[in-house]
């Protein structure tokens, strides 16, 4: 709990700076240990401050600190899918996924613990925060699809894909961060276009979205490459048409 | 807690029959109320037996009863995806989904509470039971793809789809069980073929699976209909080829 020379232990920080510093220390601990194995002592030590100081900022103890750290992580995650409405849809999605997957990479076990549940610090409040991130991601994506009132099929497709991305992130962490992030991202973009196209077969609104999205794609973009790779696989199935 | 005339309250049941009766009563209560709002009194009343009798079977109280009910539900769910390896893949998948979605329909809030987490009765053990169901479903599906050693891409695709099916089930419950179950099932089958085909573009093993699956499909089957509905949507995108 004593701070080594050079750490910013007792440097004057504003209340907001100090709070941010403690949350950052907590998040980095949650990234490598289960939430229930992180004590306030650990957070104090990692931040180079005294335990009473941690308690002054988080009088509710570990549960309050965990929820505040989660809230701060959620704010970052919710911004991952904020992206200018310019260029092909797949380019925007790839940039959003790069930010999201970088977050997963950085927060590691903390991300997994949060989504997998069953933790002693999980409550209906923490579940609500995680659901909020999912909702925000869905809203961002739907806004890029440029429909004013997305119908049930389109919304369900987007929300299913977001859950599938979470599953892929957990599998990726579980498999020692394989495949490389670029491969994972490209595969997730492919899957998005695939599920959107399947839904387009049942839903006129989604069909409009797909037509509009395809018009902006280029032959050397993700959809062009996907189409050229998939065509040889399905070309033997002419008996279905 | 007294049983009405005609209920099988004090009829002689074997230990296994009594246990099954209590679990059934518990599951039907969990279907309509949050697990934390179901007491052992409620279970005793629903089963038409005394509270001491419930405690005799579940001395660990509510937590033990909840875990046993969950274990029993998990056994049913794990069998949903067991299906003879005959006929087109989409027919097998549709039958499995019919069983799975009937379970979701029947267990309703209990299913939602379980998957959404944040419940006071959720523990690492209950999380492990739910994960076991997901793993069993993935194994069943992979066995239908007739590959001896499924690679990472194929496994990830199947597991992502299973998570997406869970998400769709929760959304379906949340939206007052709309659309009709047949529509939901058909959409999920479409999505499975779509994501499998997208992965086939990146993975030779999955490409073999898709070729094999398509060879068994008929023009009036799910894939034939999907292909004919999707072609007009993507036909303007010849510039990508």
TrEMBL record, chains A, B:
Annotated signal peptide: none
Domain of life: Bacteria
Annotated InterPro entries: DesT_TetR_C, Homeodomain-like_sf, HTH-type_TetR-like_transc_reg, HTH_TetR
Keywords from the named record: DNA-binding, Transcription, Transcription regulation
DNA-binding region: 39-58
Key word Transcription regulation present: yes
Molecular function via GO: DNA-binding transcription factor activity; transcription cis-regulatory region binding
Domain HTH tetR-type: 16-76
Family matches, as PROSITE patterns: HTH_TETR_2
Record bears the keyword DNA-binding: yes
Regions crossing the membrane: none
Name by which UniProt lists this protein: Helix-turn-helix domain-containing protein
Protein's organism: Streptomyces tabacisoli
């Amino acid at each position: 709990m004593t701070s080594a020379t050079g750490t910013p232990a007792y440097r004057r920080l504003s209340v907001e700076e100090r709070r941010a510093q403690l949350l950052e220390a907590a998040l980095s601990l949650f990234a490598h240990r289960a939430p229930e194995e992180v004590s306030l002592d650990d957070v104090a030590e990692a931040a180079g401050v005294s335990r009473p100081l941690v308690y002054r900022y988080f009088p509710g103890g570990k549960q309050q600190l965990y929820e505040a750290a989660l809230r701060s992580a959620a704010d970052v995650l919710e911004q991952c899918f904020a992206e200018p409405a310019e260029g092909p849809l797949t380019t925007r999605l790839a940039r959003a996924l790069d930010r999201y997957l970088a977050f997963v990479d950085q927060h590691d076990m903390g991300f997994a613990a949060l989504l997998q549940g069953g933790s002693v610090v999980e409550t209906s409040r923490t579940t609500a925060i995680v659901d909020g991130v999912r909702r925000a991601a869905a809203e961002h994506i739907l806004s890029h699809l440029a429909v004013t009132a997305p119908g049930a099929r389109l919304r369900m497709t987007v929300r299913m894909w977001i859950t599938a991305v979470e599953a892929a992130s957990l599998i990726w962490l579980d498999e020692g961060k394989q495949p490389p992030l670029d491969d994972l991202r490209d595969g997730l973009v492919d899957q998005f276009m695939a599920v959107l196209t399947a839904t387009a077969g049942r839903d006129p609104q989604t069909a409009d979205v797909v037509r509009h999205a395809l018009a902006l794609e280029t032959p050397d973009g993700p959809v062009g490459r996907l189409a050229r790779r998939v065509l040889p696989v399905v070309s033997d199935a002419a008996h279905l048409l």
